[in-house]
Every structure is written in C-alpha cells, then in structure tokens.
Amino acid sequence: MTAERWRPVVGFPNYDVSDFGRVRRALTARGPGSTPGRVRRQSISSTTGYPMLTLYLPPRRPFWRTVHSLTAETFIGPCPPGQEVLHGDGNRANNHLSNLRYGTRSENHRQAYADGRQVRGAAAAGPGEQRPNAKLTDDAVRVNTKNYDYYYLCPELRRKRMICVSIDRL
Predict the structure, then answer these.
(1) Spatial distance between the Cα atoms of 165 and 145, rounded to a whole number of angstroms
(2) CB 54 within 8 Å of CB 70
(3) pLDDT, tens digit, 9 for 90 and up, residues 82-106
(4) Where are the domains of the chain?
(5) pLDDT for residue 128 is more than 80
(6) Is the model's pTM score more than 0.90?
(7) 3-class DSSP state for residue 138?
(8) How many CA atoms lie within 13 A of 12 on its CB side?
(9) HEC assignment per residue over 43-92
(10) CA dist., res. 146 & res. 101, Å (int)
(11) Contact between 127 and 133 (Cβ < 8 Å)
C-alpha cells in the first residue's frame, strides 16, 4: 500500500487534502478552535449522496465543498469547462485519487447505465404489468377499457382496485 500524500487545498490555505480523499487542517493552521493536522469529519449530502464538508476562510466564512471535487482539483488540476468529476467504480463514497477523473455529464450517465446504477425511465421497467408499480394485469386493462362506461360509472370497482381514472386520460 502506498503512503498517503497530502497537498494544500486550492483556495483554502488552512486545509490539506490527501490522495485517499481525506481532508485535514493544515499543519501550519493557527487560530481559535483549530487543531493542526486533525482530519475533518465528512457528512453525506442528503440531496446528492456525496461526502461533503464545510471549509472556512477568514473571518469564519463557511463554504460547503464535495470531497471528490477537492481531491480532483488538488491532484489532477482545475476542472475543464463542460466537464465534471467522475467516479470510476460508481461509488460516491470512494474519493481515492485512482478512482477519480474528469469527464462529461454524458459519459457519467452512460457509465451509470452500463453499471446498472441507473435505469432509463419507464422504458427500462417495460410496458404494462412489467412496471414495478402496476396494479392491473394487461388482461384486466383490456377488460376494463372495453367496459369503460360501466367502469367509469362504478366507483366501487375503482376503489376496490385502488385506481384513479379520469375521462381525459383514457
């Protein structure tokens, strides 16, 4: 196993980031409440699922940053226009330098589809009863659409099958 390499975070002189995707206070950092060399705790974003943390610039101005973008920017260089950081194995928590690279959003989505981490909307689930949220079989839909007048006028049948039907949808 190789030794962990630390470099200063671009734009945040009081912090270092490692090629393993860890962030710490710089060994030269001074100030109230600072412990030089202490590794910062990361939190997982509830909206994106990426590990994030807050970095501060004097005087106590907070900035939220994702760990993968800090690691890539520090070790690979600035992100080219129109590109984003991609995780090679698709694991958002794996921020090791060997797992990160720059690529387009299109590449990112293609990789997610190929890995099976993302499906292409309704088409991926299939038509009719193959959909995971289907409440009727294909035969039941055919019967119900043939008997539409009876079906629409019979709210009891709709309640029993837990279906909402409106005239403009059929």
Answers:
(1) 11
(2) no
(3) 999 999 888 889 999 999 999 999 9
(4) 6-115, 126-169
(5) no
(6) no
(7) helix
(8) 24
(9) EECCCCCCEEEEEEECCCEEEEEEHHHHHHHHHCCCCCCCCEEEECCCCC
(10) 55
(11) no
Architecture of 6-115 per CATH? Alpha-Beta Complex (3.90)
Please count the CA atoms within 13 angstroms of the CA of 9 that sit on its side-chain side: 29
Taking the CB of residue 6, how many other CB atoms lie within 10 A of it?
Answer: 19
165, 156 contact by CB (below 8 A): no
In this structure, which amino acid lies at residue 98? S
Burial 97-110 (b: 16+ CB within 10 A, else e): bebbebeeeeebee
Distance in angstroms between the alpha carbons of the first and the last residue of the chain: 63
> What is the pLDDT, as a whole number, of residue 169?
46
Q: Give the per-residue pLDDT at 27.
A: 77
